[in-house]
């Protein structure tokens, strides 16, 4: 099966995806291993009115999910190869990561901001907000070109 020909949008879309994926991978690593810790989770659980005794198990769960997103974001570094499967993985990872803006309880953001100031919010805002923007761009090109990576239709 031959690959569809590129359009003027293909390479810029792939480059933007690689750059975003690199930023999101680094941001997720920072969020997963520097921002999210037992102290922050304890504070978040208290702010939410929950028992902080479950913080260690919750931390493990969050870090596992974070590692999945680190790997998922890293797949975007393969965007320059132009494989369709990479496009679909990148889209799925970014759509679900963008949901973090609404899925993560506000107590987590409050705890992070109280411990680390605005810098504690940046990794999540950049990765989740950036993922929302990248998702919209990828979906927009998919609607316009009807093919992954803004490829032209095969004649």
Number of helices: 7
Q: Give the assembly state of these chains.
A: single chain
Biggest sheet statistics: none
**Which structural class do you get from the secondary structure elements?**
mainly alpha
Keywords:
155 residues, elongated, mainly alpha, 0% strand, 72% helix
Overview of this protein structure:
This protein is mainly α and 155 residues long. Helix content is 72%, strand content 0%. It has seven helices and no strands. Helix 1 packs antiparallel against helix 3, helix 2 crosses helix 6 and helix 3 runs antiparallel to helix 4. The longest helix is centred in the N-terminal third of the chain and has 26 residues. It is elongated, with a radius of gyration of 18 Å. It starts with 9 loop residues before the first helix and ends in a 10-residue tail after the last helix.
């Amino acid at each position: 099966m031959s690959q569809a020909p590129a359009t003027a949008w293909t390479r810029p879309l792939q480059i933007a995806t690689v750059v975003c994926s690199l930023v999101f991978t680094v941001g997720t690593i920072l969020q997963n291993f520097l921002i999210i810790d037992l102290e922050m989770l304890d504070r978040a659980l208290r702010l939410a009115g929950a028992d902080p005794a479950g913080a260690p198990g919750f931390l493990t769960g969050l870090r596992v999910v974070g590692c999945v997103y680190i790997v998922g974001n890293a797949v975007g570094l393969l965007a320059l190869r132009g494989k369709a499967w990479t496009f679909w993985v990148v889209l799925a990872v970014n759509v679900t990561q963008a949901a973090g803006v609404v899925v993560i309880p506000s107590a987590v953001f409050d705890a992070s901001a109280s411990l680390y100031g605005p810098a504690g919010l940046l990794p999540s805002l950049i990765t989740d907000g950036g993922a929302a923007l990248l998702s919209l761009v990828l979906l927009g090109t998919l609607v316009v070109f009807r093919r992954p990576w803004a490829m032209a239709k095969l004649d």
